[in-house]
Design brief:
Blueprint: H1 4-12, H2 22-33, H3 38-45, H4 69-79, E1 83-84, H5 85-91, H6 94-102, E2 106-108, E3 119-121, E4 127-129, E5 134-137, E6 140-144, E7 147-151, E8 155-156, E9 159-160, H7 175-183, E10 191-195, H8 201-208, E11 213-218, H9 221-234, E12 239-243, E13 255-260, H10 283-290, H11 292-295, E14 296-311, H12 316-323, E15 331-341, H13 343-354, H14 357-370, E16 373-385, E17 394-399, H15 405-418, H16 423-426, E18 433-434, E19 439-447, E20 450-460, E21 464-469, H17 474-477, H18 487-496, H19 506-519, E22 522-523
Parallel strand pairs: 10-11, 10-13, 11-12, 13-14, 15-17
Antiparallel strand pairs: 1-5, 2-5, 3-4, 6-7, 8-9, 14-16, 15-16, 17-21, 18-22, 19-20, 20-21
């Protein structure tokens, strides 16, 4: 039996067809008619999501022997089995099998990775040299939303992959990639750029949803070729697939929306392109942000799902602002943290991935210490460029139990409106109402023999996870926010009860309530949180 490296090299040597062909439409129609979509696949194998196929333990997937159309497609392209030719041809029409072969998706291997000239039974049952008895898929093929996407296989016909090539094309059904695509805005824009595009799924999805023109750029040739193939397979014509180092192949092109799910893992030596974020994990992200003044149009937004670090000199969001250089006064910065990680845990994760043992742990820990890294944060980095002269904002939030695309859009729209001229004055006549989902936590401490309340915190998990230290009188104010009293009237209530100084100016009080609105403790009619929100 040939080595696993030979198996992998055999697969990678096969070239997908990248020229237009009627076979693409034939295959696309067949996949649609076969209900080759995530709900049907998950029902068949008893899983909650396609990412389960990437698990090293797929023992719960029981498809062995299933020979209907959907079962054979799953076994070939998701489980990665080698199947008898007669099984494939009995489940898939001859014209579609031919299309799969012509597009280099299916291969009939007379040796099935056995040594050359190994005698195997042919389809007629006779023994011969090199008789084609099995078929196997050269790539993984799966649905993502309304698209069909190919990427490199995560299994070999003889078992799981143990080593990945440097230009390995990462699957678009990993939890992180699925989260990336799901959280991007669904509203079409005029022009969109997907950097570090991999399979091209984000650009293809945007084009399918109505963007006039999209671009996908990746540094590896293999990702670029698979992006081209996916464009042809899905019949999407308004996508340009380019190979290059970030903005390099784009000259001075600018875009309304730039998106990226870049490599963000800290490494100490060269690693797979989809994984390698440099010593601190930020090297690719930093270069992308530095290019925004040149390539993001006024009024445009940048969406990035990656990992960044808080350091001794500044938190991540402030460091991002510095990356924008002289143009930073034109940009707002928003960070939504989904997960925090201590540097020691990052070092351990690196050691496990690199198989470097305790030495790798110590080396990575020392590298992060020298960089002044205090915390690693994984989540969303969103930057918008305004098209007028106004103050900028820099905000950080932690994702709550329910923090989706809609909540992110709400926060951006609210904070943007808040820095527009005249908005503070308009809020004087707004009628805020308290959200039912927040909590007021009081900490009592012993003092002079008595247990006295000393610390008061507002806490909420929606729209984001947030706590805010407040004065005790806030606990009396918030119940008055019932949607009937205006902000001006609420200020008078506070003055009558000596909660605030009698000469407290209205704009100062409005700014306080604006903080409560931004945190999700209060709401105003003009900026309602998304419908169906938790706690509504």
């Amino acid at each position: 039996m040939g080595s696993r490296t030979e198996e992998l090299n055999s697969l990678r040597a096969l070239r997908l067809r990248l020229e237009p062909s009627p076979h693409f439409a034939c295959l696309r129609d067949f996949l649609r008619n076969s209900d080759f979509y995530e709900p049907s696949i998950c029902r068949r194998v008893g899983m909650t999501g396609l990412s389960d196929f990437l698990s090293g333990d797929r023992g719960h997937i029981t498809l062995s022997g299933e020979s209907d159309t959907l079962g054979v497609l799953i076994r070939l392209f998701l489980v990665g089995e080698s199947l008898e030719v007669k099984v494939v041809e009995s489940a898939i029409p001859a014209g579609v099998v031919e299309a799969m072969k012509e597009l280099s998706l299916l291969i009939q291997d007379p040796t099935d990775f056995a040594p050359p000239l190994a005698p195997l039974p042919n389809r007629g049952g006779e023994t011969g040299v090199g008789a084609p008895t099995k078929m196997y898929a050269t790539v993984a093929l799966y649905p993502v939303g309304g698209l069909f996407i190919v990427s490199d296989r995560w299994t070999l016909p003889q078992g799981n992959l143990t080593e990945l090539a440097e230009d390995f094309v990462f699957s678009a059904i990993t939890p992180n990639t699925s989260q990336f695509v799901a959280t991007l805005p669904k509203e079409p824009c005029d022009t969109l750029l997907d950097l570090c595009s991999g399979t091209g799924v984000a650009a293809l999805d945007a084009a399918r949803r109505g963007c006039r023109a999209t671009w996908a750029v990746d540094i590896t040739r293999r990702s670029t070729e698979m992006g081209h193939f996916n464009r042809l397979l899905n019949g999407v014509n308004n996508v340009t697939i380019l190979q290059g180092d970030l903005y390099e192949p784009l000259d001075d092109l600018s875009f309304d929306r730039i998106v990226s799910h870049p490599p963000y893992m800290p490494v100490l030596s060269r690693a797979q392109a989809f994984y390698d974020g440099g010593a601190d994990g930020e090297q690719v992200t930093r270069r992308i942000v530095m290019g925004l003044p040149r390539h993001l149009r006024p009024g445009g937004r940048f969406y990035c799902l990656a990992q960044g670090s808080d350091r001794e000199d500044a938190p991540f969001e402030q460091r991002v602002r510095a990356w924008l250089g002289k143009a930073q006064s034109e940009f707002d910065v928003l960070v939504i943290v989904r997960q925090d990680q201590a540097p020691a845990d990052t070092a351990l994760q690196f050691a496990v991935k690199s198989k470097g043992g305790g030495g790798a742990v110590r080396q990575m820990r020392e590298t992060l210490r020298e960089l002044g890294v205090q915390n690693m944060s994984y989540g969303w980095l969103i930057i918008q460029r305004h098209d007028d002269v106004r103050p900028v904002f820099t905000i950080r939030r932690s994702a709550g139990r329910i923090s989706t695309r809609e909540e992110v859009d709400w926060l951006l729209n609210w904070e943007t409106a808040l820095v527009e001229p005249g908005v503070i004055e308009k809020l004087a006549e707004a009628h805020p109402f308290a959200r039912p989902s927040f909590e007021l936590h009081t900490v009592h401490r012993m003092k002079g023999g008595d247990l006295l309340p000393e610390e008061f915190k507002l806490k909420t998990e929606y729209p984001f996870s947030l706590e805010c230290q407040v004065q005790p009188w806030v606990g009396f104010l918030l119940p008055q926010c019932d949607g009937k009293s205006s902000v001006r009237e609420l200020l008078e209530f506070c003055k009558r009860n000596n909660f605030v100084h009698l000469e407290t100016p209205l704009p100062e009080f409005i700014k306080l309530l604006a903080i409560f609105i931004s945190g999700g403790f209060l709401e105003v009619e003009e900026f309602r949180l998304p419908e169906g929100a938790a706690g509504r």
